[in-house]
Amino acid sequence: MRPVTRRVVALAAGILLSQIPRAWAQSAPAVERRPRQLVVKLNAFPLLARGYHLEIEKSFAGYPRHSVGLTGQYYNGRVLDITAANVSRQNEQVHGYGAELLHRVYLSSVADAQLRGLYMGYGPSYQRFSMSFVQDTWVERPDGFGLTYYALVPVPYTEDITRVGASAVLGFQDLLEATPITFDFYIGLGYRYSSFRSELPESRYRAGLLDYGQRGVYLPAGFKIGLLL
């Protein structure tokens, strides 16, 4: 075979081989890209109240605009004066737990953008707190001569608080560009009812809107950062 002929055959074979992957890709069935339907988020604001809130939000196939979020809540640590107006001692402690269920309706119906965009949400919540603190109290003391007197001394107390409520929120959730990291801002309106059990006649934790025993109308607001799975 002449050198020119061999070069032509080699060139033709190279062109033919280069087309095989392209032809295979065109003939292979397209792989459907399923939208991710789960996001796990940490709520930043409750950290100020010694609270750790982790939410799992999930949408469902066939309902791209709807999702359900379940938030587990855990509280532990020293009480700060930003959340309890009556705090007076450094050893005041909170321990507690809770849960919140939130149904979200996204205003966008794009199938590949699930769990993203402007949304409205609503749902109930439940919380249980155990507070421990020391408060100056008048206590009867013997004086050694058969008489008694009253002295103002620090006395340890506990207060158990149960709180239930419901809220409606308006929020916005989206992704950081080119990452699976999500951010979620929200604000809303809610109502809470609380009851308490203590040796004191009144609750120590109803003096402010952010107190653990606060009841009545409140404004839920927050920022969550998470991971889209």
Going by helix content, strand content and strand pairing, the class is mainly beta
Distance between the termini: 60 Å
* Helical coverage, percent range: 10-25%
Q: Give the strand order, joined by hyphens, for the main sheet.
A: 1-2-3-4-5-6-7-9
Tell the overall outline: elongated
| Low-pLDDT residue intervals, each spanning 5 or more residues | 27-32
Give a description of the structure.
The protein is mainly beta and 229 residues long. The protein is built from 1 helix and 9 strands. It has one helix spanning 3-27; strands at 38-43, 51-60, 63-78, 93-106, 117-142, 148-175, 181-198, 216-218, 221-228. It is elongated.
Quick overview:
This protein is mainly beta.
Key attributes of the depicted protein:
1 helix, single chain, 8-stranded antiparallel β-barrel
Topology:
Blueprint: H1 3-27, E1 38-43, E2 51-60, E3 63-78, E4 93-106, E5 117-142, E6 148-175, E7 181-198, E8 216-218, E9 221-228
Antiparallel strand pairs: 1-2, 1-9, 2-3, 3-4, 4-5, 5-6, 6-7, 7-8, 7-9
